[in-house]
Amino acid sequence: MENLFKWNNINSKLPDTRCVMLCSDPTDEVMKIKVGALITTEKGEKGWFIGNNALVVTLRSLSYWTYVLETDITVPQVQQDSQLKSIIPPFIQKLRKFEQKFQILGVQMMTPGSKTYPLDLYITGILSRASSLIYGFETLITSANYLAAAHLVRPHLDNYLRLLAGWLVENPHDFANRVWNGEPVRKMKDKNGKLMTDTYLKDRAVLEFPWMKDVYEETSGFIHFSNKHIMNATSVSSKKENTLNTCISKTDYNISNQSKLEAIICMIEISNCIAHRVSGWIETKRFD
């Protein structure tokens, strides 16, 4: 599978200490890509921290890098909504990259030679579900079906909230086993004795990512029938006073490019949060 990433060469610039993906050649297949971070050894030499037992390799052994997280995802200020139409495809491309990023993270997490924990299997399930939702979202949004696509933002946020739950409990591996055996997360308690309901997990996530509060509340309005569905089918006529236009359609009607971009960016930001937490778990395992 050809990778979708834009690579930086170590001779041009080096990353900061954030997690990066690494390869020896930009044409490398996805499964050959490593995940690591730039470090400075005790001897003062720079290298890539990429493996179990604190394995560090030289920069030149993997001379191309790109950040795991997507950046530059702010909607530009424009005067007319129509100007945003050309910006949508590049943002879709950013979102599409996470299919490969989640595969790479999963492979690195389950690298032969490292221990396999119940939490690994729990995370694998989240990455798989996230990939399916991203694919479904992309398929719908590019098929002029914003209303159906918007429904998927909320369950994608649920992916992150359920992932976060594994970090809130006293024993993550016991927690993962209980989920495996069918126990609902909402009926379990965190290390402080609090039931991990959707609302509680959202409140905990908001402490780190304040924007999740608005995303949670706004996208919940798409799950159940609400004014959002009425407003997307009916609008005030711009040509005749006191006139309403209504449309019953399986495809978009009266949907702005701004709304589409905001939904895409939400999916990207949530995917970033998932990738960031999984990257941290991979790094933790490498010191085990």
UniProtKB/TrEMBL annotation:
<protein>
    <submittedName>
        <fullName>Uncharacterized protein</fullName>
    </submittedName>
</protein>
